[in-house]
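Re: weekly structure request thread

Next one in the queue (142 aa):
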Amino acid sequence: MMPKLSKCFSFTASRDWLYRHLFAAGGLRSVATDLGEGTTMHCWVPKLHRPCKPSLVLVHGFGANAMWQYGEHFRHFMAHFNVYVPDLVFFGDSFTSRPERSESFQAECVVRMMEAHGVHRMSLVGISYGGFVGYSVAAQVP
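Done, posted below.
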């Protein structure tokens, strides 16, 4: 008897595998950054940071992870920017043991993660919830 297809094939796992491959082939690498105090933020960062290019952070909205939000788009920015694509805390591979759940906390984590990668000046694009986080980034570090 043949097992049900649903037990053999996972659309989500297959799509994650495809996006990981596309991000890596597109010039990004997967990095988990320990921000301390029980917080780790995952981000796709440039394999090679080019100082002559500005940095661009692509912040996702509600969803599984940043790959699903920007998988079809990040390549268009790679020629002109050092592209960073973080998973917000509680999404993808980012997590914390801290009790904070606000956009302000998310923004603080994005800023700390970027600083950990030596980036102190950046442009930011946020979709949906990522827009609220981006607004909070701008308010915290104008």
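Helices lie at 5-8, 11-25, 66-70, 103-116, 129-140. Strands lie at 28-36, 39-46, 55-59, 82-86, 95-96, 123-126.
Next request, please.
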